[in-house]
Amino acid sequence: MEEGYESRRGSRWEELDTDILVRIFQKFSIFELTSGLAHVCSGWRAACCDPILWKTLDLSHMRSSFIKIPLEPYVYVERRSDEALTRILKLSMNLSGGNTRALVFHFNLFLSDDQLTYTAERCPGLRRVVLPAWNRIKKTGICKAIRIWKDLESLTMPSIANPPYLLTEIAKNCKNFKELKIMGPFEIFFANTLITYLPNLKTLSLRCSAIKREALIKILDGLPDLEVLNISHSYLVEYSVWQPQQKVIVRELDKTILEKASRLKRFLTCMEHQTCVMCQRTENDEGIVRWYKYEEGEWKVDEVSSLHL
């Protein structure tokens, strides 16, 4: 009797409708999907490879095990941690079949150039990339990835000192690019580079940052197609006329900025430094928010719905 039961049970698993399995697997994390489910049987393998499961590859809960070091790249990632990420990426790429359209990494997940290139080559159709940590990614690595991602529309990235090399590649290769989120201080040089290379940008998020007032004005004047601008929980910085080296923090938007921003469809602001916890955190961290100190997942938040994770 037990033998007959085992036979019937095995038959049911083999014949279970793939659509039902896919709906079940949609509730699983990336770690569960790559834990060996595809090896159970051919039916499970087919379900594990369904494009719906891989539309977004979300590694926002995976962190590198690392220590800080005084020289570039300023972090040392432990070998086992690196190997774990490589394993997850290889398994995911094998199952996804190039169907991933959004790729999300944690702000403390430090990819190497090799890992980024491997992923980019197997996800050529990406439209959205959330990549907040670039410590181990070199100029050649990110530029190679951008050349592959011809359909890229949205990028979340850290603030970088030399943006022209990146924005040049985006302008040349990503004709549908329209949305940018920068995590970190926003300087005049970055604003000028955006205006030069991405004048058709539609959405820009600079939340939780120290923003040079002149940079904000340049953006409002120089990006005619900009529709949505988010500066929530940020503060403005300008320098004293009498003491050029003295930084002045501006906690209110003046009439000039408000008038220039009135043309936007959405201008998202919050500068309530007396009552807003996130505004206080940004100022206390001097415009470079130490996300690791705060609630897990807080870094994913954005007032722009298309950027919220």
UniProtKB/TrEMBL annotation:
Residues 18-59 form the F-box domain. Coiled coil: none annotated. InterPro entries: F-box-like_dom_sf, F-box_dom, LRR_dom_sf. It comes from the Eukaryota. Pfam families: F-box-like. PANTHER family: F-BOX DOMAIN CONTAINING PROTEIN, EXPRESSED (PTHR38926:SF13). This is F-box/LRR-repeat protein At3g48880. It comes from Raphanus sativus (Radish).
